[in-house]
Amino acid sequence: MSANSPRPSVLFVCVHNAGRSQMGAAFLTHLAGDRVEVRSAGSAPADAVNPAVVEAMAEVGIDVSAETPKVLTVEAVRSSDVVITMGCGDACPVFPGKRYLDWRLDDPAGQGVDAVRPIREEIEGRVRGLLAELGVAVRG
Predict the structure, then answer these.
(1) Catalytic residue of the set 18, 54, 92, 131
(2) Cα 36 to Cα 139: distance, rounded to the nearest angstrom
C-alpha cells in the first residue's frame, strides 16, 4: 500500500479504456466502496465507453454511462499498489514494487451485449477474488 494512503490503490488498464477496464473499476468501486482507491485508463483511449458495456453493467445495477475513457499515465501506475492489465501489451509501464496482474479476457469492442455478459461475469468474479486477497470486505 502507498505510504500516503491507508487503503489499497488499484489501476485497471486496457487499450481503449472503454470496456474491460471500465467494468473492472466499476465492480471494484461497487463492491468495495471507498475502502479501495480505484482508477482505470487506456493506452489508446476510445472516445466513449462501449454502449454494450454500459448496457451489460446496467443489467446488474451499475451505471457506467457517465464514465469517460482516460489516457494511461506514468503517474497513475506509479501511484497504484496493484496494476491489472487487460490486454494493453507493452504500453503498460512497469515499476519495481508494484503488483501486476494480467487478466486475459476477451475484448468486448464491437461486440453486442450478449458477448459482453460473460466477460462481465468473469470480471466480477476476479474482482471479488482480488478483494479477498487484499483483505477488503465486500459491501452488503
Answers:
(1) 92
(2) 12
